[in-house]
Amino acid sequence: MTADLSALYQDIILDHYRAKHHAGLREPYDVAVTHVNPSCGDELVLRLSRDGDRIADVGYEAVGCSISQASTSVMTDLVIGGTTQTALELYDGFLAMLEGQGRVDLDEETYGDAIAFNGVAQFPARVKCAMLGWAALRDAIVRTEKAGETHE
Ligand code: ZN
To answer: In terms of pTM, does the model score above 0.90?
Structure first.
């Protein structure tokens, strides 16, 4: 990665950290989950509101490092309004990039600002920071699917 690109990515992350998209805990919601990343001190409460197979809203309250909070902000931009299936596919791709140690690139058109986390792949200790919001979302999707089954 060139120094210029690295600086651009840093700016994208700081922009999301300073002005988080979709932050806040809103009503109504179907499930709330709390995820923590003890190694860094990141904490996240996330609420998922579904409309059938679609994600109607994702709200959250987060404390912790800029990477964890910015990544959660970017995640909400990508998944709100889409299907849960698409969100889980985005999760898989984002995780593969973070664990790819720089060998896996994200498609910019699909991932938007999430490509800014490319540099995090070089720092295994920060992967959990970047995945915190995504892991919470995945957990919330799985829980709402289980809840749906018991109601049928
Ligand atoms: Zn962190």
So the answer is: yes
On whether the CB atoms of residues 78 and 112 are closer than 8 A, the answer is yes
- The CA 37 to ligand 1 mean position distance, Å, reads 7
For 62-87, how does the pLDDT look when each residue is reduced to its tens digit (9 = 90+)? 999 999 999 999 999 999 999 999 99
Q: Give phi and psi for 23, each to the nearest 5.
A: -70, 155
Q: Please give the helix or strand (H or E) that residue 32 lies within, else none.
A: strand 31-37
Phi, psi for 64 (deg, rounded to 5): 135, -160
Token pair recorded at residue 11: 């700016």
Strand partners, 51: 54
Residue range 37-63: mean pLDDT, rounded: 97
Q: What is the CA(147)–ligand 1 centre distance, in A?
A: 30
Distance CA 152, CA 108 (A): 39
- Collapse the DSSP code of 106 into the 3-class scheme (helix H, G, I; strand E, B; otherwise coil) and give the result: coil
